[in-house]
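As a warm-up, study this chain.
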Amino acid sequence: MRQMSLTPELVALCHREEADPGPDGSWTQLNDDDFRALAERLSGEADEGPLWVFAYGSLIWKPAFDSVEQQRASAHGWHRSFCLDMVRWRGSAAQPGLMMALERGGRCDGVIYRLPDGEKPAQIERLLRREIDDHESVASVRWVPVRTAQGPRKALGFWVGVTGRGTSLGQPLEKVAHVLARACGHVGSGAEYLYNTVSHLETFGIHDRNLWRLQELVAEEIRSIHGPGSESAGSFEPSVLAIT
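Now compare it with the structure written out below.
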């Protein structure tokens, strides 16, 4: 596996204890009936056969569901992008962070997971409760056509085609690196999220050129913040609670 510039020691320097501020009251929270109705709708739009989920970020290294099969898959017309503004989870009001979503254009290589046979609405509802919690995010949940070595499939994708409030689309990597090297929330830092994503993609043989360059830039930013010899300090215990 390629040697990353962003090391566990550098990631450890980005961690700090942050309190969970709780949900932002400006978003409209989904209730139990909302989750059930959305799960039923998505289940009705699904293909016959098993349920597949497309993973391109933290779902690769923290699926939070049981799967019985996994395959490499490519979603054409989409690419990974740190475009979700975060003031919770891996960011704070004092130092906002960024999380990944799929933005239009290009190609995204990821992994699809096949869930065990079961009631699709119930399976989908569990996934929804992990990934979203407000009405404003519902439009980002959609079925994504993907290509695999075994042929085309349709997989459930989260945070796909986000727009509007809470998003910062098309940012240059240098600006993203500046944010990720500094942002931290109650579940961990932006640098940790990037490290986990890039390292796990590499174990699947997936090399995302933009993310590879981004981890180099984040490593440079952390060194500029903490000074020479910074990598000799601290230890890294990767956190696995994340979204997207």
